[in-house]
Queue: 3 jobs
Job 1
Amino acid sequence: MDVKALRQAVEPRTASDAMSYESDGHVAMMDIEEKRETGASLMFLGLGIWMMDLLVVFFLPSGIKFGHYATFLSIIIAMGVLGLVLLIIGYKVRGKSSAE
């Protein structure tokens, strides 16, 4: 028995490794569908964060009255950027799954 065969026999396999050896193509379809769902979920989270950002914008006038303008502005910018990043990542993940 050579070293390579011994190493493969000893290394633990994960479920995804075991599934990748199937030859009928069902695993590839499950992987594409999983990527598509992950991308859609990330995009949905990005839109949800933007909706919460609109609530922060709604309370901005009261923040200006109390002198917390910079705090509200930093929260608005941070949530806007986070939402945009999640949308872009989700779109790319979803796009990669449809290209395969």
Note: The chain has five helices and no strands.
Job 2
Amino acid sequence: MNKPIRQPRKPVPDTKEKLTLYVTLMVSTTLCISVLAMVAAFLLGLWAKEVDNGEIFKMISPAFSTLIGGMIGFLSGIKLMQNEEDKHKDRKC
């Protein structure tokens, strides 16, 4: 008779790690969608005859900079917090 081979279970990630992963993925997805929408608005503004190119850039540029800066700051903050938690775990061992 062949006995089934027992395979070790994969470790279950911590709930906080799962939450951090999901939030990071949501923020990254939102950033990508927002950037694509703004680039599309830039491109439409460039070739639209009714729209002055200078005005479309004046209107969208601050929002673009704010969005990019905020999202990148958020993502880097999450990464820094993960690094700090890893350092504290290493010290306890």
Note: The chain has one domain: 25-92.
Job 3
Amino acid sequence: MTSRRVWGLGVPVGGLLLATACGIYATSTPRYALYRLGAAIQRNDLAEAERYFDVERIADSAANVIAGDYLRRQPAPTTEAEANGRQLIVTLVKRRVRPQLIARVRAEVRRAVERAGGPATPVALPTGLVAVLRAFRISGQDGDVWVSYQDPHEGPVRFRMSRQPGQPWRISEFDPEWVRRRAREEPIRIR
């Protein structure tokens, strides 16, 4: 009788623990964060959508791409003083474009939220659990993940997602080629 009672209680409790563990794991994945981001956009919830973007890191990585491209277009320095001058210029360029990039990222998120359900957004995220599971390709790298998918209007989109303690997975960097494409479409002005 005792073993029957243990099985009678153990199986449901074990099943409940397993279901809880699976639920906790599933809600802590990048795919779930993308699902929540898509749901926030569809609900026109700007504050919730912004939680899934690390705007500062996105701006920093984009500024690095823009400054690096600028340096590659310049002739190679011939002296140490020229090399130091170039580094100073790059630092100044990053400082100047970073606030513009932060504003642009926030504007893109706002635009995507405002246009949900209306005309096509600049980057149309697939929404719904099945769409998120099918549409995104995710590969890990150093604790972060790279996510790629085919946007119907933008073409291939690739971005890095990172997780900080106490935060959901957040988009923290866009692929350099995507940044370059967007910078050509809407040039950054260095003021």
Note: The chain has seven helices and four strands.
